[in-house]
Amino acid sequence: MLDLVAAFIVLTTLLTYVNYRFIRLPPTIGVMATALIFSLIAQGLSLLGYPLIEIEAQQIIRRIDFSDILMTWFLPALLFAGALHVDLSDLRSYKWPIGLLATVGVLIATSVIGTLAYYIFALFGWHVDFIYCLLFGALISPTDPIAVMGILKSAGAPKPLATTIVGESLFNDGTAVVVFTILLGILQLGSTPTLGTVSWLFVHEAVGGVLVGAALGYGVLLMLRSIDQYQVEVMLTLALVFGGAALAARLHVSGPIAMVVAGLIIGNLGRKHAMSDESRRYVDGFWELIDEILNALLFALIGLELLLLPFSWLHIVAAFVLGGAVLVARLLTVAPAVFIMRRRADGRRQVSHGAIRILTWGGLRGGVSVALALSLPLGEERDLLLSLTYIVVLTSILLQGLSIGPLVGRLYRDQPQPATDDHH
């Protein structure tokens, strides 16, 4: 196991170096792109009669449980680190669009994508049960703005858009995982539960996650207030994330939602009332570093997964059609939220005419979707959905991620940006 971890870290570091030194794409997109290039080179050498690199890389990737690693280790830490730097007052200002996108939006997207996927699969000659189509809709619904946030900021995106995308992403991962879990339970039961049962499962997972996150967050907050030693405070936050995620899994509540709530509590109340300037600096630095390292590892893994998945031209064409369906569903969820944002926004926070385009095109898909696809029951449906999910995620990150910056720049180049007070 140690040699596996060492090999993967070394490979990811080399890919990160190559991107920074030569390619210079945005960090997460660049790491994934270099991993993708590495995968293609390995496959090319294999076709030329030199399969050693591809075989070694495949052995490393096969031994990695992507789904377990992401859901148990990566996702709780990434969501906590993201929530740690979000101002609660900003979330309150845009709570309606964020709340709609992260809850009702996920449900609408799941239904729309699932229905469109059912007909798209039939168009390509694949008979896929509707429950699997809904599972595909649920796993592809959560947006992953990790790769796009830096681009939005450097391109001068208005604060309402940036806040909405961050706030939505923090909560829609948890909502989508809850919806996916419920649908997976229905598939495994082989029968459709009552509406009351489904509603109770949703409330138990989602509300339970909020309560567990709040309890853990306030508990650690009290401990932070009683000391002033940055090493211990950093360790407390680390224990909160991984211990809290394990506890949430044991209680069958949403770990992602729990970590978002805990991160908001520590990042806001903890900063103001429980940390000295020195402690705040070290806690911030630690979690920013963890965030960067885990993102690099995650996107490298996404790029390297190409070595394991079987593809055909039919898969690629179908995935592009499904990608269009995902964008249609995104548009249908974004537009109502933007209309609400416009009605409730004051003059200082007025939403521009380009908000729908930015929110739609900036809703990238990422590692959570791949991890959920990997957790599907073994079978032909899993293999098909996994390959299609991977291509949709890959093209989303590369195509949308690399073009969202120019789009933002073109829309807002000549618009004055309001002065904002950064929380951190």
From TrEMBL:
It is a multi-pass membrane protein. Residues 11-408 form the Cation/H+ exchanger transmembrane domain. One of its GO terms (cellular component) is plasma membrane. It comes from the Bacteria. GO terms for biological process: regulation of intracellular pH; sodium ion import across plasma membrane. Keywords: Antiport, Cell membrane, Ion transport, Membrane, Sodium, Sodium transport, Transmembrane, Transmembrane helix, Transport. It is found in: Cell membrane. InterPro entries: Cation/H_exchanger_CPA1 (IPR018422), Cation/H_exchanger_TM (IPR006153). Its main location: membrane. GO terms for molecular function: potassium:proton antiporter activity; sodium:proton antiporter activity. The chain crosses the membrane at residues 6-23, 30-50, 70-88, 100-124, 130-149, 170-189, 201-223, 230-247, 253-271, 292-311, 317-338, 358-378, 384-408. Belongs to the monovalent cation:proton antiporter 1 (CPA1) transporter (TC 2.A.36) family. This is Sodium/proton antiporter, CPA1 family. It comes from Phytopseudomonas argentinensis.
